[in-house]
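Suppose you are handed a protein chain with no further information: no name, no annotation, nothing but its sequence. What can you learn? This example shows the usual starting point.
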Amino acid sequence: MSPALRKPSPRATSAAISVGETQRCTVHKDRNLLAHVRQRLHEEVSADYNDMINAASAAEVEQRRCAFIRKMAAQMQGGRQQPRRSP
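A reasonable first move is to predict its three-dimensional structure. Written in structure tokens, the prediction is:
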């Protein structure tokens, strides 16, 4: 088999990606967020996430991300939302 057709090793793949971080597409990130909240919050979380990723600048994205984290933390601490555990 040609070396070009071989599947890259996980070590080589992680070396090519900065510091072992993986990047997912926005659809997968959205699905991951929705997998961790109750059904009744799906529309709200999706709307907040879409606002984040469609912001005009990196600073605005960071500002919206921090606001989203504070909002979700307040809901979880207030007892209105308990985080779902993955199976």
